[in-house]
Automatic annotation (TrEMBL):
Keywords: Disulfide bond, Glycoprotein, Immunoglobulin domain, Membrane. It is a single-pass type I membrane protein. PROSITE patterns: IG_LIKE (PS50835). PANTHER family: IRREGULAR CHIASM C-ROUGHEST PROTEIN-RELATED, NEPHRIN. Its main location: membrane. It is found in: Membrane. Pfam families: Ig_3. The keyword Membrane applies. This is Myelin-associated glycoprotein-like.
Length: 196
């Protein structure tokens, strides 16, 4: 038993992903060489553990030899891929006359999507002479590259803005950007300044 995915969007997913956000595609559960054929069900489990049965179309591959063995599958068509299904688990359940209980096969879905950054506060206070850190929190797949800007000039290339000792020269307007292969997301706060 195995799972196949197909992405029918304009952008192909990168390594380790099945789908690209806002595209559409299919998930198929397939068994091979069964006699008689198997009965299959498919569901997915969200990141909170809630399982939902999926509507599926049956796909049969008729054997070409004298021995009757079936390759049987079911396919779920996803009309629009949303980022929230990233990390969902597809559960394929197979029943067959030779099995005492259903067999399960689990597969985790990977969806690529552009960065979304949580808003920064309007002001952040740093104490003079003390270390200061502020993390740019974002969500993206693949993981983004982060860049901090101070007064519209590149300042640091890291997710966390770090000042070893906050000084008067550190006062300014800071913004964070996150980019992956889909887009760059700039978060420009309303006059974010580090105050004395």
């Amino acid at each position: 038993m195995y799972v196949e995915t197909s992405n029918d969007g304009a952008v192909a997913p990168g390594a380790g992903a099945d789908f690209v956000v806002n595209s559409y595609g299919n998930i198929s559960c397939v068994t091979t060489d069964s006699n008689p054929e198997t009965h299959m069900q498919m569901s997915w489990v969200d990141t909170d553990g809630k399982e939902t049965a999926l509507e599926v179309d049956k796909v049969d591959v008729t054997p070409g030899s004298m021995v009757k063995r079936w390759n049987t599958g079911v396919t779920h068509h996803i009309r629009k891929i949303f980022r929230y299904i990233h990390g969902y688990t597809v559960v394929c359940r197979v029943t067959h006359v030779t099995l005492q209980e259903p067999k399960e096969f689990n597969y985790t879905i990977g969806v690529e999507y552009p960065p979304i950054i949580q808003p920064l506060p309007n002001t952040a206070k740093a104490n003079r002479g003390k270390p200061f850190e502020y993390t740019c929190n974002g969500d993206a797949n693949p993981l983004p590259n982060y860049i901090w800007y101070k007064n519209n000039v590149t300042f640091q290339s890291d997710q966390t803005l770090t000042l070893d000792k906050a000084e008067e020269r550190d006062i300014g307007i800071y913004m964070c950007s996150a980019d992956n292969r889909f887009e760059i997301f700039f978060l420009k706060p309303h006059g974010n300044r580090f105050n004395r």
